Amino acid sequence: RFSSFVQMRGSIPSFWSQDLSKMVPKPAIMIDRSDPYAEIPAKHFNNLMRRYGSPIMIINLVKKREKKKHESLLTYVISN
């Protein structure tokens, strides 16, 4: 028997951006709602399924508890 795993690391597969021209430590995250049916994330995960098969495990490493909402906005968007 053989076993293997592939670990991918990257950004959340959705439309979002940060204005890096500002010289603040954490630029605001802006959510782009141009993909209301989540077609881009669906394509991403379909590609992963085609390349690696099942199961696909996802670990959310985005911060959940913050004094000022920043990364947690992304968690809200991808879970709703």
Automatic annotation (TrEMBL):
PROSITE patterns: SAC (PS50275). It is found in: Endomembrane system. It comes from the Eukaryota. It holds the Pfam family Syja_N. GO terms for molecular function: phosphatidylinositol-3,5-bisphosphate 5-phosphatase activity. One of its GO terms (cellular component) is endomembrane system. GO terms for biological process: phosphatidylinositol dephosphorylation. Residues 1-80 form the SAC domain. The keyword Hydrolase applies. Keywords: Hydrolase, Membrane. Signal peptide: none annotated. This is SAC domain-containing protein 3.
